[in-house]
Amino acid sequence: MTQETKQLSEHAREEIDSWIKKYPEDQKQSAILAALREVQHENKGYLTPELMDAVAEYLDMPKIAVYEIASFYSMLETTKVGKHSISICTNISCMLSGSDEIVEYTEKKLGIKTGESTADGKFFLKQEEECLAACCGGPMMMVDHVYYENLTPEKIDKILDELD
Amino acid sequence: MTDDKVTIEVDGKTLEARKGQMLIEVTDANDIYVPRFCYHEKLTVAANCRMCLVEVEKAPKPLPACATPVMEGMKVQTKSEYARNAQKSVMEFLLINHPLDCPICDQGGECELQDLAMGYGSDVSRYQEKKRVVQDKNIGPLVQTEMTRCIHCTRCVRFGEEIAGLRELGATGRSEYMEIGTYVEKSMVSELSGNVIDVCPVGALTSKPFRFSARTWEMSQQSGIAPHDGLGSNIHFHIKQDVVKRVVPAQNESINEVWISDRDRFSYEGLYSEQRLSSPMVKQDGKWKPVDWSVAFDMVSNNLKESVSADPKSIAALVSPSSSTEEAFLLQKIVRGLGSHNIDHRIHQGDFSDQENDPVYPWLGQDIAEIENLDAALLIGANPRKQQPLLNLRLRKAALKGAAISALNSIEYDFNYQLANNIVVSPLAMVGELAAILKALAEKTGKNQDLPGFINKIEINSTHRAIADQLVSVKTTSVLAGNAFSSHPEYSSLRFLASKIAELSSSTFGFLGEFANETGCWLTGAVPHRMVAGQHSAQIGLNAISMFENPLKTYLLFNIDPLCDTWNGSLAMNSLEQAESVIAFSAFRTPSLDKVATVYLPISIYAENEGSLINVQGTSQSFASCVSPQGEARPGWKVLRVLANHLQLEKFEYEDVTGLNKEVNDLIGNVSPNNKAQYREAVLNKPSDNAVARVTDTCMNSLDVLVRHAESLQQTQDISDGKVHLNQTLANKIGLENGASVLIEQSESSLNLDYAIDNRLPENTILIHAAHPDTAGLGAWYENVSIRKA
Q1: Which residues contact B651 (CB under 8 A, 6 or more apart)?
Q2: Nearest CA in chain A to B175
Q3: Fewest CB within 10 angstroms: A20, A136, B138, B455, which?
Q4: Would you say the C-alpha torsion B709, B710, B715, B717 has a positive or negative sign?
C-alpha cells in the first residue's frame, strides 16, 4: 500500500473492493462514484484533495480525473461543509406547496444562507438543484439521506433540534 | 470503385472519400474550409465546440463535420444560409463569456477565435448579463494561464491524455462553472507540456517566458533544427528585431510530427543569458581581459605551433556532440593537420575498450517513424520519455497498439505506458541481467553457438524468459540502447550482449542517441580511431577520458564545460589545470572554463549558428543563421577556418558554409550505417558483496550548455539537484534521519552532500545527477562509493 492509499480506512477499502468486483477486471475506475460516496461519508460529508488523491491511487486513475468527477456531481462536496447535510427541494411541486417559506424559515433559524454551513460546523444547508422525487409529499427535504415530507416550520424545528 | 470508397457531394463538388472518414477530414483534404475549434488532426474527436456545424441533406438538424462519418451519396452544404446561421449562432455563444482583452492578449493576431469571429461573429453582442470569470492557477514556469479566455474545446485535456500520456489538465465543475485547469495548485511536469500552448485555439494557454514580449505580427518566422536530442526536431524561430522571441514546432511527420519537447521549445532563452561570451578573452596573471580577435588568434596559433614543435601528440581536442557537422569536421581536420589524433566527442562514455569494433556510427537501426510499428522492444539503460521525448511518443503509440515494451535500467523510470517487463538492478548487475535474457533467448531459439562461457553460470527467471518470448513471438522487434547504456562502465560487454540478443531474436539493434549530432561527429572523424567517413585510422589517438589521464600541453575545448560535460569531471579539471594552454571555443563563460581556460574564443550557437546536424536515423538537416551572434561571437566553422589559416594549414579555403557542407557531404554521403558488428565478447565481473554503486543520470534540462543557461527550464523539476539520491532502505541502513547530510567517498575525492530519498533506486545504489557543479567534481560517473552519515 502506498503512502497515499493509507488515507483510506480499512472499511472504505473493503467497500470500494466490493464495488470493484461488480465491474470487469480491467475497469476498476467504474467504482469511482461508490468510492467517493463512501470516502465522503467517512469524512463527515466532504472530500479533500488528499482523499481524492488516495481514491485516484487506489483505482489507478489520474488524479485530475477524480477531481473532475468530484466537482461535477452535486452529491459530492469538495469543500468543508457542516456535519448534517440538509437539502430542501425547491422544484416545481414543492415550490407550489410552499417550499420558499420553508427555505426562508430554515435559513433564519440556522442563521445562514443556502449553500452555507453554520459556524459550529453542525449544519450544511445544501443548494439542491434537482427534484428529489417525492412530489406527493411536498414541501420536502432530505437530511443525511433521510426524506422528511409535508414540512412545516414546527416540523423543521423538531427534526433539526433532534440532530446531535 | 473499391468497397472502402464512397462518393459524396460537398458544396456541389463531387468528392471521393474513404468509408468511415469524418466529413471534416474530407473537406480539409479537398481545401474546403469548415470552421472549427475543438477538432485537431492528431487528437480524438470531441465534437464539443459545435463550430463545424454543416448542412447535410435529409438530416433533421445541422451536423458537426468533425463527428459525422461520410456515407455514400451524402450531400453536404458548408456555406449555405442554413449552415452559416448555425455557425454564426455557435460563434455568438462562444463569445458570450469570452473577454474583450484581445489588445493585451499574446494570442492576438494568431488567435483562432479572433479569426473566426471576423468571419462568423456579429458586430454587436446581444448578451447583457454578467460574464464568467475564472481564477487562474500557477501551473509552472512554462505555461501561462488566462482561463477566463478558455472556450472549453478540451484540446489541451485530450493532448495530455492521448499524446503526452499524462493527464494534468482536466475539466472540473459543471455547466456554467466548468473550468479547464489542474484543480489543485500544481505545476505541469510533462516534458511535452508546452504543446498545449500550440493546441489552444485561444489565449487561455500561452508561453510564460514569451509573455507580453512581442505582438505576433511584429515577428518573422525562420526555420531551424532543435539541438538537444538525436532526433533534430524541426522548429520555427519567431524573431523580432534580431532577437529570438519564441520557438514553435515545424511539422515534419518523419521526425517530430507536429510536436516538440519543452526543452526544444524553451532553450532559446539560453541565447540571452548574461553568461554569454561576447568577445575573445585571454587570461593574464589570473585575470580575464577582452582582446581583439587578431590578438586571440595570434595567441592560440602560437600556443598550438609551440605544442606541435614540442610534440604534436601533446594537443588534444574535445568537441561537444551538439556541435554542427561542419564544426566537428574542421576541428578534427585542424587537429589531424597538426599531427595529432587526440580528438573525441564521446563526452558521456566511460568504456572505450572495444572501440576498434565500433560501427561507422551507432544509429537507431531504423527510421524514427518506424518505431511506432514495433511489436516488441527491449530498452536497455534508457529513459526515452525524458531523453528522447518525441521518440518516446512513437514508442508509446506502439505500446498503446499492444507492443510489449520491456526495460532494463538502474533507475525505475516513470514510463507513460505500461511496460511488459521492467527490470531495475544495480549498475553492477546490468551485464548479468542482459546475459540472462540472452540465455533465455538461446534456450528458446536453440541457437546457442558463440555465446560467452560465463553464460552457463547465469541464472534465469521468469522475467528473462518473458522478455525472450516476447522478442521472438512477434514480427517487428527492436533492442534499443539508451543513454545509460552508452555511459555504462561495462559498455563493451553490454553492447556485445545486446547485439547478440538482437541477432538471436531477429530484432534491429538501435541506439537512441543522446546529443543532436553524434552521427555528424562520428562521420566527420571527431573520434581518435576513425577518420572522415568512418575509415580506420592507422594511428589511434587519445579518447575523451584518456586525454585527461596524463596532463597534456594544449587542449582545445569546443562547446564544452569541462566540469559538467565530461564523464569524469575531476579527472578533466585536474589535467586542464596543469595544461599550458586551454583554448575554449565557447558561447558561454562558465566557472569551470574561467578557472582552467587560457583563451576564450566566442562562438555563435543555435539560432545564431549555421551548418547541419545529422540525426539518429542518419538524416542530415541544414540550418541557417537566423539572428546575429551576440557581440563579437562568430559561427564556429568560421573561427576554425581562420584559425587554420593562421596555422598555415592547407585546404581550408572555405568561403561559405554551403561549400563546406558540400565537401563534407561528398566525403560522407555514401556511408551506410550498420550496428551489427562483430563485437568483443562480454566479460562478467563479479560484483563485490555489499558494495554501494554510484549511477549517474543526466536530467533532460541539464543536458548541454545551452539548456543549462535557459532560465525557465532551470525552474522545472527536470534539472540536476546536486544531491545524493538513495532509497529508504539504504538510508535506514546508514542511519540517516531528517536534515542530516551524507559523506560520499569516491576514489578521487569525497564530498559532504545533502541527500534525497529516491525509492526508484535498487538496493545498494546511489544516484547523483550529472552536470551539477557541486557534484561533478566527485569523479567517474559509475564507481563503487562509500557512503555514511556526515
Answers
A1: none
A2: A72
A3: A136
A4: negative
At residue B2 the predicted structure's pLDDT band, cuts being 50, 70 and 90, is low
* pTM of the predicted model as reported, rounded to 2 decimal places: 0.93
pLDDT of residue B548: 97
Range of the domain at A58: 5-72
Domain end call among A45, A72, A99: A72
Quote the CA–CA distance of B415 and B243 in Å, as a whole number.
37
Q: Which residue of B has its CA nearest to A65?
A: B170
Closest partner residue to B167 (CB to CB) among A49, A64, A71 is A64
Q: Cβ of A96: how many Cβ atoms within 10 Å? A: 12
Q: What is the mean pLDDT of residues B203-227?
A: 96
Q: Given B168, B173, B174, which is nearest A64 (Cβ)?
A: B168
Q: Residue B185: closest CA among chain A residues belongs to which residue?
A: A49
Taking an 8 Å cut-off on Cβ atoms, the answer to whether A67 and B173 are in contact is: no
**Chain B, 160-189: which have a CB under 8 Å from a chain A CB?**
161, 166-174, 182-184
Q: How many pairs of residues across A and B have Cβ atoms under 8 Å apart?
A: 31
Answer whether B154's CB lies under 8 Å from B171's CB.
yes
Which pLDDT tens digit goes with each residue over B723-755? 999 999 999 999 888 777 999 999 878 999 999
Structural domain contains residue A34: yes
pLDDT digits (tens, 9 = 90+) for B62-84: 999 999 999 999 999 999 999 99
- Within-domain flag for A11: yes
Q: DSSP letters along B161-186, please?
A: IIIIS----EEES-GGG-EEE-SSS-
Contact (CB, 8 A) for A134 and A140:
yes
